């Protein structure tokens, strides 16, 4: 894979508000499947921007050192559409509605 192809691989992002030891709240964004790829900022968008820069640095650095790049887990399978049951026109039976 080329460096550009490695950079296009989608990783699962987690973003949350966390409280620092000093009591300040920040937004933390991370790619848990890419070790060390965690960024914090006052706004979620700034945290995501910092995270994406760090992701590029980590991937390019690992490639330069000849290290393997962690492969993210495959996407979750699409869940089937839920089935609803409604009374049939006669009012005694249920019929499936999709």
Question: Could you characterize the architecture of this molecule?
Answer:
The chain is an alpha+beta fold and about 100 residues long. The strands form two sheets. The protein has a three-stranded antiparallel sheet with strand order 1-2-3, covered by helices on one side. A two-stranded antiparallel ribbon has the order 4-5. The longest helix is centred in the middle third of the chain and has 21 residues, at about 45-65. The model has no long low-confidence stretch (mean pLDDT about 85). It has a single domain (about 5-75), classed as Double Stranded RNA Binding Domain. It has helices at about 5-10, 45-65, and strands at about 15-20, 25-30, 40, 85, 95. The protein is flat and about 70 Å long. It has two helices and five strands; from the N terminus they run αβββαββ.
